[in-house]
Design brief:
The chain has helices at 2-24, 27-39, 50-53, 59-62, 68-72, 85-95, 122-125, 134-142, 177-198, 213-216, 218-228, 283-295, 314-329, 331-334, and strands at 41-45, 99-105, 146-152, 202-206, 233-234, 262-265, 299-304, 338-339, 350-352, 358-364, 370-374, 380-385, 394-397, 408-412, 422-429. It is of the alpha/beta class. It folds into 2 domains: 23-329, Glycosidases (TIM Barrel, Alpha-Beta Barrel); 338-429, Golgi alpha-mannosidase II (Immunoglobulin-like). The strands form 3 sheets. A 7-stranded parallel beta sheet has the order 5-4-3-2-1-7-6, sandwiched between helices. Helix 12 (283-295) links the parallel strand 6 and strand 7 (299-304). 39% of the residues are buried. Bound molecules: alpha-D-glucopyranose. Alpha-D-glucopyranose is lined by residues 46, 57, 59, 206, 248, 264, 271.
Length: 446
């Protein structure tokens, strides 16, 4: 009897686990994530008063490199004099990005829009004296780009926020709950403004590490945003209450397990504009990292940091343009594709069409005339160079009639079809890709 009871409990537990797992994977969550998963490329924008001196966004005063007072003096230099939001949207579009995420408010609390909550914003306290967010959101929509709003949960300038600098913690929530409540009303009030004014496709939270989910009222916030727009996407920096993971700076070496993820990456070593930082990644390196993300089933959110007058530094424009030429040529291998096949089958990056009948093979540099695919069981119907059109020959070697082992496919790659940055081949199969993954042992008979 006892044994039956134990079994019953075990089954009960297993059942409840599988039920809760199924609940985790709500089909509507996947539906709303579809555009995001297909988009592959977004442009991140860090624009704020820190561009005036060209210093670390918010962190420069938090880390005591500059006093808070002097940090705020940059407000007078934030002119947005040459700001051309239409051009911003156009160059973002040209890069091949499908969405953009802009810092509406960083940890320093400086808001780009005309907020009713407090005075620290572009309209009331900067030299620009105008709302610089609304025209950009409009320009994104005009260009058919999805709108993402970055919002820092902490505001280190706000007198009733807990943290101010690395050494100054103003108070503990348990000591002054009313004070904390004031902050909650303030930040949630701003979120409400952004939500109603811009109804973004995506929310990009940051700075959640300073408080736990309960303290931020993360559930309440999520509920508010989703009630207003059930389709809106939230990044995970809301104490894990979001929809996708955001690895930062380091392109994942091992493919993340999360179904949705986005690598955020600076073009040089800074998020915002820093005239001193000339350590730009080359277009080749950015494209390599982008290909890596695509082949691992994720997105790249590539950052630009415009100057205080609203111009985008020429090095950044150059990367966006070079990237744009490459993404435009290779769009069929990028947008809407799925993660590729294991490196056992090809020593490099690959991606698959949604129906898995086309394998996209990314070829870095000069492949020495041939590339090899291993263990692809399908018959290959055709191979062509993406964005260029040349059909390529292939030959299977090491295939014997008595074994299921499919052999090695060599594809000829003439030099004249090579792309300056990364050549992509489309390998059309006779059906969904079928990979030979058997571990081979000694042959017992033939
Ligand atoms: C970090 C930093 C912040 C930057 C962000 C971008 O969380 O605090 O300065 O904006 O990463 O991902």
């Amino acid at each position: 009897m006892k044994r039956y009871l134990a079994l019953l409990i075990i089954f009960g537990l297993l059942f409840s686990c599988s039920v809760s797992f199924a609940q985790d994977l709500k089909p509507e969550t996947h539906a709303k994530m579809e555009w995001f998963k297909d988009a592959k490329l977004g442009i991140f924008i860090h624009w704020g008063i820190y561009a005036v001196n060209g210093i670390d966004e918010s962190w420069s005063f938090f880390n005591n490199y500059i006093s808070h007072e002097d940090y705020l003096k940059q407000l007078d230099g934030f002119t947005a004099k040459k700001y051309d939001p239409e051009y911003w949207a156009e160059i973002i579009k040209f890069s091949g990005a499908q969405y953009s995420v802009i810092t509406t408010r960083h940890h320093d609390g400086f808001a780009l829009w005309d907020s009713k909550f407090g005075d620290l914003n572009a309209v009331k306290s900067s030299a620009a004296k105008r709302d610089v967010l609304t025209p950009f959101v409009k320009a994104l929509r005009n260009n058919n780009l999805k709108v993402g709003l970055y919002y820092s949960l902490p505001d280190w300038s706000y007198a009733d926020y807990t943290h101010h600098t690395r050494d100054i913690n103003r108070y503990k929530i348990s000591d002054e709950p009313k004070r904390w409540n004031k902050y909650l009303n303030y930040y949630q009030g701003q979120m409400g403004e952004l939500m109603k004014k811009y109804n973004p496709d995506l929310w990009w939270f940051d700075g959640d590490w300073e408080h736990n989910a309960e303290e931020w009222e993360a559930d309440k916030l999520r509920a508010m945003l989703l009630k207003h727009n059930p389709e809106t996407i939230l990044n995970s920096r809301l104490r894990g209450k979001g929809d996708y993971e955001t690895p930062e700076q380091g392109p994942p070496v091992v493919r993340p397990v999360a179904p949705y993820w986005e690598l955020c990456l600076t073009m040089n070593d800074s998020w915002g504009y820093q005239h001193n930082d000339k350590n730009y990644k080359t277009p080749q390196q950015v494209i390599d990292i982008f290909v890596d993300c695509v082949s691992k089933g994720g997105n790249l959110l590539l950052d630009i940091g415009p100057k205080a007058d609203g111009t985008i530094p020429k090095e950044q424009v150059n990367v966006l343009k070079e990237l744009g030429v490459w993404t435009n040529k290779h769009k069929e291998a990028i947008y809407g594709t799925e993660k590729g096949i294991p490196y056992d089958h090809y020593y490099g990056a690959t991606a698959l069409s949604k129906d898995k009948t086309i394998l996209y093979v990314f070829v870095n540099g000069n492949a020495n005339g041939q590339i090899a695919l291993k263990g692809v069981t399908n018959k290959i119907n055709r191979i062509w160079v993406v964005g260029e059109g040349t059909k390529l020959r292939h030959k299977v070697i090491s295939k014997v009639y008595w074994s299921k082992y499919p052999g090695i496919t060599y594809i000829d790659l003439p030099e004249q079809v090579l792309d300056k940055y990364c050549t992509v081949l489309a390998v059309l199969l006779d059906g969904p890709i079928d990979l030979y993954r058997e571990r081979v042992g000694a042959i017992e008979s033939n």
